[in-house]
């Protein structure tokens, strides 16, 4: 009864059962799919391994890199009113080109005064030297006068001695009557005259000695001012010449010139403005000497060495223009260390942050001349660390 009630079920059940051949085909297809997937994974893994081994391990790169340059600040060395400004921002200048002229009236007056002081000092020194020479001649004359005074003194002394002997002799003969009183009186007068002459010659000798000594003192005092020196090497002349030279320098400094080749930037001066020494007037950016500071992560720098080759691309020119350079060196500290407000790591809520260290890269001057860069532009830097 039940057998005949569902004849269709009994006949269709075998049709839903997979045959052994179909099952084998399905398993084979599945194996082929797994094999294909394994092959793809193997190829991808091999590619990644090859890239890491032969490419990535030999290069470190960053897009945190920027163009820099040693920007020259233009500042006056002397103060004064601005007479003329000859350049403006974006103008290309060469080293030595005139940028600004200051009013030089005061500087010219100071130079004229310094030149007059120098001429007066030179004449004074020449006069002093002539005085020393004249005093030398006068001293020679005084020496002759002193010698004459010495001779007169010796003669007067001899005459006094002779008069004394003659007086004594005559006084001894008075008692015997051989000599009259008049002769004794005459001898005494001669003796007194000889005494007066000796005193006069002694005074004259002392005066001659004092006169010569005073003359020698004057010569020595005056000669000390010019001793062992010519007019050119005299200290007073050298000092006056230094003042004159400083005045010349100050006059020359009223013309302010470009310190380097480059592009004028940040002009901050106008004609008629009074400027002070050291005041910033403008900047000159030496774009032909530009470099790149690339901020690499500290974990990238293990193999980086000075002298390694670097390939760079700028956002300005795109991938079509490549720059080439070399690693120059590393900064003395990370960017965080030199920040205006350095990070305080000695806190309870400390989180380690990977630091970046600036790496200085020198660029090829010929490439810079063909494709000029500007300070602050973004760059991508790729260092070849294989050598």
Textual characterization of the structure:
This protein has 387 residues and is α+β, with helices and mostly antiparallel strands. The protein folds into three domains: 59-71 and 286-384, Elongation Factor Tu (Ef-tu), domain 3; 73-102 and 257-284, RNA polymerase II/Efflux pump adaptor protein, barrel-sandwich hybrid domain (OB fold (Dihydrolipoamide Acetyltransferase, E2P), Beta Barrel), CATH 2.40.50.100; 107-248, Helix Hairpins (Orthogonal Bundle). It is 47% helix and 20% strand. It contains seven helices and 14 strands. A six-stranded antiparallel beta barrel has the order 1-10-13-12-11-14. A four-stranded antiparallel β-sheet has the order 2-9-7-4, with no helix packed on it. Strand 11 and strand 12 form a beta hairpin. Helix 4 (105-173) packs antiparallel against helix 6. Residues 1-13 have low confidence and may be disordered.
Question: Can you give me a brief rundown of this structure?
Answer:
The chain has 387 residues and is an alpha+beta fold. It has helices at 2-5, 7-12, 20-54, 105-173, 181-224, 235-252, 365-370; strands spanning 59-68, 72-74, 80-85, 92-93, 98-102, 255-257, 262-265, 274-275, 282-285, 291-297, 309-314, 322-330, 356-363, 378-384.
Report the major sheet: 6 strands, antiparallel, barrel
Distance between the termini: 93 Å
In CATH, what is the class of the largest domain?
Answer: Mainly Alpha
What is the CATH H-level superfamily of the largest domain? Helix Hairpins
The number of helices is: 7
According to DSSP, the number of beta strands is 14
By CATH, the topology of the largest domain is Helix Hairpins
Q: Structural class of the secondary structure composition?
A: alpha+beta
Note the run of SSEs as H and E. Answer: HHHEEEEEHHHEEEEEEEEHE
Q: What is the mean predicted local confidence, pLDDT?
A: 83
Please name the CATH architecture of the largest domain.
Answer: Orthogonal Bundle
Q: How would the global form be characterised? A: rod-shaped
How many discrete domains? 3
Low-confidence stretches: 1-13
Round the Cα radius of gyration to an integer and report it. 55 Å
> Portion of residues in helices?
40-55%
> Which strand order spans the largest sheet, edge to edge or round the barrel?
1-10-13-12-11-14
What portion of residues belong to β-strands? 15-25%
